[in-house]
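Pipeline run #58 for the internal structure catalog. This entry was flagged by the ingest filter as a single-chain record with no existing model, so it goes straight to prediction. Upstream metadata was stripped on purpose; only the residue string is passed forward. Reviewer on rotation: M.T. Logging verbosity set to normal.
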Amino acid sequence: MEVGEEFGPWLSRQLKLAGRTQAELADELGLTRAAVSAWITKRSVPRPTVMGEIAKALGTDLGTVHTRTTDTQAGLPVTWYHRPGYQDGGRDGGNAAAFAFDADVQVLARETCQNSLDERLVENGRPVRVRYTIHELTGEKLDAFRAAVLWDELQPHYSAVSESAADQKVGRVVDAGVRDMFEKGRLILLRIDDYNASGLTGDDYGDGKFAAVVRRQLESLKSGRSAGGSYGLGKATLWATSALGMVLINSTLSVPHEGRTERRVIGRLELPWRSVDGNSYAGPAWLGRPDPETPGAEVVRSWWADEATVKRLHLTRDGDEPGTSFLIVGAHDVASLEQGKADSADEDENGSNDDGTRDIRAMHRRLVEALGRDFWAAMTGGGSRLPLLETTVCAMRNDDVVIDEVKVDPLNRQPSRTRALRAFYEGTTVDRLTEAGQVALRTVPLRLPLSGGRHGTLGTHPGVLLVTDAEGDDVPNQVHSLRGNRMTIKKSGVAGLPLGVNPFQAVLLVGHAAGESAPFAEEAEEFLRAAEPPEHDRWGQTEELTLRWSHTAHHRFARLTTEVNAAVKELVVRPKSSRSQESAKLRKKLTVPSKSASPKRAAGRSVPELDDVDAEIGAGGEWRITAEVKLPRTEEPPAMTPVVLLDVRSGSRPRLDWAELVAVEGCAVEGGVLRFTPGVRRAVFRGSTDATSHPVRTELTRLVLELRAGTGSEA
């Protein structure tokens, strides 16, 4: 049940909104000014019989006066306030912070989900729930929404931006967004709702989360110690994703403001400088209730909207759980639109018809992909550790569901890494990998420097490295690194792995992610956060790292990477001496011609040579071969054809067919021929023979692998 505001402050604001004085209200009620003053100062409250008269005087109903959970409609109505142009003639071509990110829903998902994680209410132990809703409006639904956002008031400003679009990048985007809405008769809304979060608390103008998000730029006021954001740039992705530069906000507060918590509403518009009816405007505009305490009551502030208003604005929230809803008006995703063009070409070839929902389906798919890729760890729990995050994505058109709400499951998106993290939480890790499905644990040192440019080490933080075999993941042999908020910060491969390594996945936990009680976890968290750029996609040299520590502090991450790679290799690379007898027998069956046995070639010409080969017999009786090629020092190594032959005691060697031949590194396969990348020194390819071309059982054969110049057809 929503808590209403105290009567005195509520009545005071209603009088200001209506432009009336206490004396005027007292005269209308037939009371003394002292009586009204006593209500305002909270020294008394009016009798129940007087409440009805107050409601009549304010032009509202008795229920509003009793509950005081919304403002009356008396006084100045909700409108758009456009910031006046600078008196010194300065002009802004748009919000520079928005250029820090691309108009990409995957970038949006990363930044907004991180912000929601940072604002999670931790006292109850529950995860923050984030819901993404893609909603396309057409026809009457679109007309109704445009009326709700007072489009007629905005039209002259959009027209002014369109007239100067050729001179402004932001103007060109906005002009295209407006034309798309009217020419195609559609508008895509993308709403991000979070629950069990703090909400936009604080005053409209003072220091607080509301002002940091709605009023200011480059200001970050985070709640948690392990917060991901530190630049105050992430919120700019909301406006960058809007082709119209418009975002509407409805927040339910965790801490009451003006005695209330629900339906705190405001809108912000980001446009470039423009001139309308002879008046210049600086750029941003806000949708809200005019503030009577500002000069001329021109500046607007947030208002406590009723349920009907938030419904018209497509901002209705589920229940009264704290959190914020951001509605991106005119959402566009350049990456998914480009992908949609490719999908369209494929569908046309297959004779499929587009039902008009291709764009929102592409957005839906890319959102699910991004959330599973970047936040799988935050959505994973185990043992006594609960997930920090739950995410869902759905798509709609005119209130009808196009794609049912999908809950992102980390086990489906990142099965190996999720299994590894759960094993760590549940204490079921092992020292070495001896069976499929096991998770090995190693600690790796992060040596923290002293701050202020001093030489020496503050202490050693033991990061946790988890390694397991890869299972259904997109890219194997990678290390995902994360800290306290459990968002994937860094994705990297492991250099120098030998051939034949079984596919694996690794997770590096540092800072609070390694455990709240891990030595120097707090200090590591602070150090790591300072080493992240605005994109939060790596650890390295940043200005903050240099100012707070030193210009060489980033070298600590290179050492950490070296330690991680060494530990991974120790766990996944099998010593040659420990190979099984069966593996040794198979290797003996595969012959690589020695350099002395290679066919003579023209003097002075260097050719690629086989340097290392590994093989095994597949389930279908085929030979599976992985080979490494040493390349000469030449800008354009000659093309070579890999040829696999049966080794026989006498006569010509029968040639087997390739069922599959694929490039792994440093080369490409074209028609069974290897063409090498200029400038590389080593290349790797992999192939499987066609078992139907084997004249005898595979187990009874020995092979010879050769590289032949050109197409190899002369063999």
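catalog note: The first helix runs from residue 7 to 18.
catalog note: The radius of gyration is 33 Å.
status: ready for reviewer M.T.
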